[in-house]
């Protein structure tokens, strides 16, 4: 049995454990990274959501229903857990009916979203690609019916936001200068992404949006990223170039039950086994192959 296979079984055992249930009772999201949220989203990104124990899925849904998540969660987190639960067979719009309207309601004038509340109060109202992609993916990939006019507009405006950035540019707003510092990292695919952005993630969304919405694909807006990926991975094998979890702190619960910030986040075997720098990622490679095939079919 390979190390990755062992790590998959480790995560499944953990998710079925009393420890995981107690963690969900304390908080659905924290701590990073060794808690049910992150084990579940990692398995989902691997295409293994069907292995997540059903009792754990139900527990996650129940506590999300109880915890006032819309007030406490950011758009990227909600977008990712929406996709994970949908992949587990949860009727998310029925059981957590506030999430989808929340996405549509918080779209900014430029078509994106932002996890920073201050963006909605600023004059320029800048979006963030990190906060934009997961909600767009949730609506695009998990609507097994015709889109409502509101959903279609949400997706089209969101796609315009990503395309205006040429899939690789940070916000030009003076109120979001920090995002421009992330541009070099977006050229480095990571796995699991958890909630972070990279250009392959953006390209996959845009190509699937054009296909599903029967929209023309503005090649001049994606050419630089397509050319970059083809030159970077001439054999089609996408290698991991950064860690989504690197340098991230967490919150830990103290003896009184209060959550306190902590500079060091914990890891778990599956997170580490699937994210070795320089390793060919079968999951990213598959996404790149599927994206190129879809791109060719649109042309």
Q: How would you describe the overall organization of this protein?
A:
The protein has a domain at 93-242 and 277-299. Helix content is 55%, strand content 3%. It has 17 helices and 2 strands. The chain has helices spanning 3-15, 18-26, 36-45, 54-66, 69-72, 75-87, 92-95, 99-105, 118-121, 129-141, 149-164, 177-180, 183-186, 199-212, 219-232, 269-273, 282-298, and strands at 250-253, 259-262. β1 (250-253) and β2 form a beta hairpin. α6 (75-87) runs parallel beside α10 (129-141). It is globular, with a radius of gyration of 19 Å.
**Unreliable parts:** none
Q: How helix-rich are the residues, as a percent range?
A: 40-55%
Radius of gyration: 19 Å
Order of helices and strands: HHHHHHHHHHHHHHHEEHH
What is the count of DSSP helices, taking H or I runs of 4+ residues? 17
Query: Ends: how far apart?
Result: 42 Å
Shape annotation: globular
């Amino acid at each position: 049995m390979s190390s990755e296979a062992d790590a998959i079984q480790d995560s499944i055992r953990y998710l079925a454990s009393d420890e995981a249930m107690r963690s969900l009772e304390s908080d659905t999201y924290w701590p990073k990274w060794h808690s049910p949220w992150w084990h579940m989203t990692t398995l989902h990104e691997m295409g293994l959501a069907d292995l997540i124990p059903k009792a754990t899925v139900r527990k996650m849904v129940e506590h999300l229903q109880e915890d006032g998540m819309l007030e406490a969660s950011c758009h990227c987190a909600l977008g990712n857990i929406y996709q994970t639960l949908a992949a587990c067979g949860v009727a998310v719009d029925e059981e957590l009916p506030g999430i989808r309207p929340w996405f549509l309601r918080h779209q900014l004038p430029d078509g994106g979203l932002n996890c920073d509340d201050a963006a909605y109060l600023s004059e320029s109202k800048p979006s963030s690609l990190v906060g934009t992609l997961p909600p767009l993916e949730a609506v695009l990939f998990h609507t097994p019916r015709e889109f409502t006019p509101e959903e279609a507009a949400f997706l089209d405006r969101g796609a315009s936001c990503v395309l205006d950035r040429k899939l690789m540019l940070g916000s030009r707003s003076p109120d979001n200068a920090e995002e421009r510092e992330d541009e070099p990292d977006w050229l480095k695919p990571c796995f699991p992404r958890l909630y972070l952005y990279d250009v392959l993630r953006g390209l996959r969304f845009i190509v699937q949006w054009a296909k599903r919405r029967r929209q023309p694909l503005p090649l001049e807006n994606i050419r630089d990223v397509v050319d970059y990926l083809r030159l970077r991975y001439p054999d089609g094998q996408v290698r991991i170039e950064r860690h989504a979890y690197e340098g991230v702190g967490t919150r830990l619960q103290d003896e009184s039950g209060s959550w306190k910030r902590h500079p060091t986040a914990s890891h778990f075997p599956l997170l580490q086994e699937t994210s070795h720098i320089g390793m060919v990622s079968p999951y990213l490679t598959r996404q790149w192959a599927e994206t190129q095939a879809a791109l060719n079919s649109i042309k």
